[in-house]
Amino acid sequence: MTRLRPPARYDDARLGSYVPQTESQAEARDKATRFVRLARVRYGRPSWMRLFQRDDGLRGGLYLVGPVGTGKTHLLASIYHALQSPEGGSKPVACAYTHSSALLRAVEPPDVYAQRVAEAARVLCLDEVELDDPAGEVRLIAVLRALRERGVTLAATSNAEPEKFVSANLGRDRLERFISEEFEKEYHVVFVGGDDFRQRLSKEGRAWVGEPEVARAAMRRAFEAAPDPKRWLAFDDLIRLTTEVERTRLTDDLARSRALFLDGIDVSDTDDALRLLRVADDLYGLPSPPTLYFTSATPPADWFDAEGRRGVEAAIAEKFTRTTSRLTALAEVEHV
């Protein structure tokens, strides 16, 4: 298994550069620091000694959960970088870092996937655990169990608390028992609260929300003034590209532009929501994403909100808040 790294945006993320804004964020940083220390102790010992050790306090791992924009991915990437780097004479701890969507898309059975991870890493950093359906939960649970059996420790982030996974909403007893009993027993669940820090950042891009022709005219003026290379895409064309072009190739293609203009964002169903979510995640993960401009008839917060939705739709709407957070972090919204 190729050792996967955090997105390039987080190359400089370190525990020392994480500045807590709330008590829960300070606690999360302390828990992440403790996780690194305990992982160094656990995996610094010969393997035969680990067979006889008592509970070392690390358990199955660390699960950081909370709303969007509280720095959970920064902490996870910091854990990765801290364990990968020798410190105080200790040896590096082999880590793998991946997004939950990659775990859920993998074609191997859970035990084969877990074995592939275990052959390359002692710690798996799993970012943004997001579950849209019970089938995804079944796979995730099976992988977590298989990783634990193989001695791999988990550090994970999520916007969803375990008791709010899809299965809990659907009343699936077997999965609900895992969440309420086994998960909480095996992992340190740490809440990371606070406001969305992305909204405090300076925003290079611009968005226009309102009557379509007025918004489009405003964006057209910005497009004409923008330096090359630049790209204008109707939202329907962007959605079509996500069905025709492989995900990494599409991200690379969009990233060739210095400025990206998306006209008429209109999220009408879960398919649109998931496709826009993936594009936004991939662009946001770049160290220097294109300057973003977009138009929409409605504010981003209203595109696919959770009100009145149930089951899978509600779960997707919950994680879609990360998409609107990232898009509005890249572009200042103006109502026209």
Automatic annotation (TrEMBL):
<keyword id="KW-0547">Nucleotide-binding</keyword>
<dbReference type="InterPro" id="IPR005654">
    <property type="entry name" value="ATPase_AFG1-like"/>
</dbReference>
<dbReference type="GO" id="GO:0005524">
    <property type="term" value="F:ATP binding"/>
</dbReference>
<dbReference type="GO" id="GO:0005737">
    <property type="term" value="C:cytoplasm"/>
</dbReference>
<dbReference type="InterPro" id="IPR027417">
    <property type="entry name" value="P-loop_NTPase"/>
</dbReference>
<dbReference type="GO" id="GO:0016887">
    <property type="term" value="F:ATP hydrolysis activity"/>
</dbReference>
<dbReference type="Pfam" id="PF03969">
    <property type="entry name" value="AFG1_ATPase"/>
</dbReference>
<protein>
    <recommendedName>
        <fullName>Cell division protein ZapE</fullName>
    </recommendedName>
</protein>
<keyword id="KW-0067">ATP-binding</keyword>
